[in-house]
Amino acid sequence: MSSMNGPSPVDGKIVLITGASSGIGEATARRLAADGHHVVLGARRVDRLAVLAEELRAAGGRADHGHLDVTSLDSVRAFAGRAHDRHGRVDVLVNNAGVMPLSTVDALRVDDWNQMIDVNLRGTLHGIAAVLPLMRARGAGHIVNVASTSAHRVDPTAAVYCATKYAVRALSEGLRQESRDIRVTLVSPGYTRTELTDHGGDPEVRAAVHEMSERLGIPAAAVADAIAYAIAQPDGIDVNDLIIRPTGQG
Ligand SMILES: NC(=O)c1ccc[n+]([C@@H]2O[C@H](COP(=O)([O-])OP(=O)(O)OC[C@H]3O[C@@H](n4cnc5c(N)ncnc54)[C@H](OP(=O)(O)O)[C@@H]3O)[C@@H](O)[C@H]2O)c1
């Protein structure tokens, strides 16, 4: 897919991206801005968002950014509301923000469990709550939820992470079934080289998964390309389920 096939700047979409300060969210912002969409970047590290937005604008793209903590419904509503006020519509929400502090269930790292539930699941729900009424009112829109291959298989040390991603998959399918006007896409990456394994969880598990990710991982741009593909389809064509993983992942 080349950006030649994307919409021109004139018909580009207003695309909100959560967790755009690194990894898959950042790569998605780069790809969609290059395709001619107007990207609205959200995350907690606003300094990184500001640098990225400036870089995209300098390259001829359209981008703005704002502070966003997806664990707070007020924060997500304010983020989406500002974008709607400024642009008059929200065409696409990419619910991408996520955390993965891994450990065995026996370790009882309850704070980590709650963080994964709050960011990965509640954060995705907050995003939907913030944009769904706006999209329903227009009778059009697209919600892209970033899950994981962990939404399709369970592995030791990832029980709670998988539980949140399975939940996002169930949520996406339910929303799809209830929608005749809004497109719903679930994007499930496998090992991808990002900052996801840089923080949290059991240090030994984190080191092992980090090593695996560095050895096997695909670039974040590969996932961004899949998201761009789903967004580029005509309104009547709903790409629902995409799994993108390294050939060597097994
Ligand atoms: N990398 C992989 O192998 C892989 C595989 C499957 C699925 N995924 C999924 O891909 C998505 C993106 O992760 P990534 O791999 O790109 O990791 P990453 O580089 O660590 O990016 C995670 C993003 O989420 C944001 N975030 C975390 N907590 C947040 C909060 N409370 N509010 C707003 N933003 C928050 C971070 O921004 P701030 O810290 O600045 O807020 C960051 O931009 C996640 O949903 C992850 O589960 C990744």
From TrEMBL:
Its EC number is 1.-.-.-. GO terms for molecular function: oxidoreductase activity. It holds the Pfam family adh_short. Keywords: Oxidoreductase. The keyword Ubl conjugation does not apply. Belongs to the short-chain dehydrogenases/reductases (SDR) family. This is SDR family oxidoreductase. The lineage of its organism: Bacteria, Bacillati, Actinomycetota, Actinomycetes, Streptosporangiales.
